[in-house]
Fold this protein.
Amino acid sequence: MQTESDTIESIEAVRARDRSHLWHTWTPLTVDRSELMLHHGAGYRVWDADGKEYIDGTSSALSAVCGYAHPEVTAAIARQLGRLHHFDLSRGSNEPAGLLAERLASYLPPDLSRTLFVNSGSEGFDAAMLIATSYWSHLGMSRSRMVTFALGYHGSTLLSRGLSALPRVAHPFRAPLPVTRVELPVAPREARAPAALPLLLDAFDRAIGDDPADLPAAVVVEPFLNVGGGIVLPPGFLSGLRERCDAAGILLVLDEVFTAYGRSGRMFACQREDVEPDILITSKGLTSGYVPLAAVTVQQRIYESFGRDPVIGGIRYGHTNSGHAVGCAAALATLDVLERDNLVAHADYFGDRLRTRLAPLANTEEVADVRGLGLAVIVEMTSAEKAQQVLDRAQERGLLLRRQGPQGHCVLIAPPLTIDIEGVDLIVARLEQALADVAG
Ligand SMILES: Cc1ncc(COP(=O)(O)O)c(C=O)c1O
């Protein structure tokens, strides 16, 4: 294997180093991630250290909306690196950060116009919680309770994981904020049906409550519960939540870390229902995952309320690399590619095509359901064991997939938005073969 220093190393030496020193995220110690040692990628394909080719149905960390080694994104990164890698936004500014904040505002309704940059979805979520609770204290009210889905996933920091009831994020310090968690009132595969809408909204009504002394600071949801099991919410859900938040006078925070930048078949999933959140958190696709970056975009009135902060008259929050110039340059190039290549509509079309092709697999002994939103397609297996077997067999056949859901029984297919007809055909063929292997 060719390494950075151009020495030739055996793949086993590379793996041995990995096994000895690298701590793999979200991984049981008994599982050896060094087996899938990726070396390079191009478009929606990646190659491992042995030269084996895969279709990447995982977009790296569900982020590579433009695929791998995109020449324009990599050139923009190199240009910015050679000019100015970063300048701290708490001391001055850098041009790409302002350009990107303006660009995000151009996609959103006029009041949703102010963006704070951080480095990950989890940090974006933490910042959103600080902003929401601070907003109420700037108005002279003490509100900190959050209403959210029990199956929601908002990140791995102590604050963000504290909102979720997913077993994988359980932690002794898991409730820094008071939380009312809404259980799904129907089975995950029934949640997308119009009949689920009143049940879901009733559950949120009960969670919001009507005690003026105990109103929540915000309702906080993902428009598609990805880690929670690929749960598609019924049409009208987000607009119903918006109406309820307006009626109760509370904030609506949308976590679009996964769904934004085309994944949902729209630039932002909330645009499917013309819903305007008070706070919008985005990440992953923003830079296509080439450089860590997340954005927290808020309504102008929320931003202005920070003038009343008693200590500095502004937000007391930020990171060394908030608004990193290279990250912002990568994001601007990613957005150029999304727009020029019409990748948002492309994702909508190919997501539909993939779901239509896979739909006949549902209601068998192995597959309970096929569903999804945009270019995020979920194959719900009848057990976690079968889901793992499908992942393993698909990988052998050259297709990388992910497992999702509280029991890990859902298989997620979320390739780069640059996928084409040939790529969709290969995904379908390799998945069908993997399923046949598992059934056979
Ligand atoms: C909806 C959602 N929110 C937040 C996060 C956390 O983002 P990060 O892993 O960048 O911290 C994720 C990551 O998967 C996510 O899907």
Notes: The CA atoms of residues 62 and 414 lie 7 Å apart.
